[in-house]
Sequence to fold (203 residues):
Amino acid sequence: MIDTHDAGITDPVALEIRAAEGRLVGSNGRYEKRLSELAGLYRDERAFAASLAGDSGDPVYWVESSDTQRGDGALITGISVLEPGRIGDEFFMTRGHLHARSECAETYVGLEGEGVMLLETVDGRSEAHPVRPGTAVYVPGGWVHRSVNVGTGRFSTLFVYPAVAGQDYDIIARAGGMRSLVVADVDGGWSVRDNPDHVGYRA
Ligand code: MN
Fold:
């Protein structure tokens, strides 16, 4: 029998998705974002300051992922979990990014809650796709992407993307935020409107 470890073949990984707990059992990486780390993400600075003053310090979103294989052809599998909430009329959201290798795609699958995947190209296209349990969204290369929790409970997704992709978070900050904002409606729903601070994406 050939010993595949000698051939550099990685062991398979079995993961247990505990969506309600926001856990990916068997994963080997986790990062968290607290409200205090998200200054400048939301347009309403007064609302942000007020929320921060009463903040518990708990994470507002986190990612647990498995990246045991590296290099070309490898995939990273993980879950993204966003708590519900708003800053002004904007719903809680991830910072968002374009993949550092922008040709790399990503698939998201809704696990829990009600969210929106906000997608934009650097040349001006913008789309907002609802994500619920059982929804899959394919994010092609070249699209800036962000998750937004428009529901009243946790919003969690499973994601899979190439290990070589990397993330460019700063592209959104340099553009004055994403082109579109996902905001609360008077009727309790959500809608998309233009971000007046957006100055266009630059390389
Ligand atoms: Mn991504």
Q: What stands out?
A: Helices lie at 45-53, 170-174. The mean pLDDT is 96.
